[in-house]
Amino acid sequence: MRKLFIPYVMGNKDFIDSVKLMDENGADYIEIGLPFSDPVADGPTIMAAGQEAIKQGMSVNKIIDQLIEHKDEINTPYLFMTYYNLIDAYGVDAFIERIAEANVYGLIIPDLPFELGQRFKKHLQPKNIKLISLIAMTSSDERIKQIAEHAEGFIYTVTMNATTGDGRGFHESLKDKIKFIQQHANVPVVCGFGIRTEEHAKEIKSFSDGIVIGSEIVKRLKNDSIEQTQAYLQSIRKALDED
C-alpha cells in the first residue's frame, strides 16, 4: 500500500496556492489549519503562522469561500485542523453545512474528547465528513483499542519526545505502539511529530502507514521559494515511495 503523505498548511492569504502545490507534488491528504486565537495543541511555528493569518484578516468564511471557488482544481482530499471552540462559536450545523459545500473531507479537532467526538460524528455523517481520531503515545491500551475501533479516514498518532535524542532514530516503544494501534484499526495509522527530513520519512514509513509534516512545511512556505518547497515535497514523496 502506498505510504500516505499528509502535508499541513495554515489558512493564510496564500493558502490556496500552497494547497495546489501540495496537490501537484505527492500529497495524499492536505491538512488546512483554521487560524484560531488560542491554539492549545500547536507548536510555536504553527501558532505564529496562525497569528499572522489572523492579522491578514483570514477567517473561517474566507477560507471556505476560497475552497468553494477552487475545489474543482484540487484533486487531493483536504481536511480542516481546528478547535471545537471555533466550531461551537460558528454554530455546529452552520459550520458543517459550509464545509460540506467546500468539499472538506474531514476534521481533526485536538480539543474534542473521544466521547464527545462520537456524538459529534452524528452531525457529520449525513454529509459524509470524517472525524479523524488522534491517539497520543501516552494513551492506555484500552483507550487505544476504543479509539482505533471507531476510527474513520485515518488515525493520526501524536507523540512528543519520539526520538532517542542521540540522533539514532526513534524509540522501539514507538514502533510497538504503532503496531498495536494497527492491530486494532481498520484504517491507516499515520505519525506526526517533528518529522522534517527524508531520513525521518524513510524510517517512520518502515513501521507506519504514512506521515504528517506540519511545522517544517510551514517554515518552508514562509522562507523558501516555490521551487525549493516543491523540491522538498517531491523529496518526501520519493522517500516514502522507495522500497
Automatic annotation (TrEMBL):
<dbReference type="InterPro" id="IPR013785">
    <property type="entry name" value="Aldolase_TIM"/>
</dbReference>
<dbReference type="GO" id="GO:0005829">
    <property type="term" value="C:cytosol"/>
</dbReference>
<comment type="similarity">
    <text>Belongs to the TrpA family.</text>
</comment>
<dbReference type="GO" id="GO:0004834">
    <property type="term" value="F:tryptophan synthase activity"/>
</dbReference>
<dbReference type="InterPro" id="IPR018204">
    <property type="entry name" value="Trp_synthase_alpha_AS"/>
</dbReference>
<keyword id="KW-0028">Amino-acid biosynthesis</keyword>
<feature type="active site" description="Proton acceptor">
    <location>
        <position position="31"/>
    </location>
</feature>
<protein>
    <recommendedName>
        <fullName>Tryptophan synthase alpha chain</fullName>
        <ecNumber>4.2.1.20</ecNumber>
    </recommendedName>
</protein>
<dbReference type="Pfam" id="PF00290">
    <property type="entry name" value="Trp_syntA"/>
</dbReference>
<comment type="function">
    <text>The alpha subunit is responsible for the aldol cleavage of indoleglycerol phosphate to indole and glyceraldehyde 3-phosphate.</text>
</comment>
<comment type="subunit">
    <text>Tetramer of two alpha and two beta chains.</text>
</comment>
<keyword id="KW-0822">Tryptophan biosynthesis</keyword>
<comment type="pathway">
    <text>Amino-acid biosynthesis; L-tryptophan biosynthesis; L-tryptophan from chorismate: step 5/5.</text>
</comment>
<keyword id="KW-0057">Aromatic amino acid biosynthesis</keyword>
<dbReference type="InterPro" id="IPR002028">
    <property type="entry name" value="Trp_synthase_suA"/>
</dbReference>
<feature type="active site" description="Proton acceptor">
    <location>
        <position position="42"/>
    </location>
</feature>
<dbReference type="InterPro" id="IPR011060">
    <property type="entry name" value="RibuloseP-bd_barrel"/>
</dbReference>
<keyword id="KW-0456">Lyase</keyword>
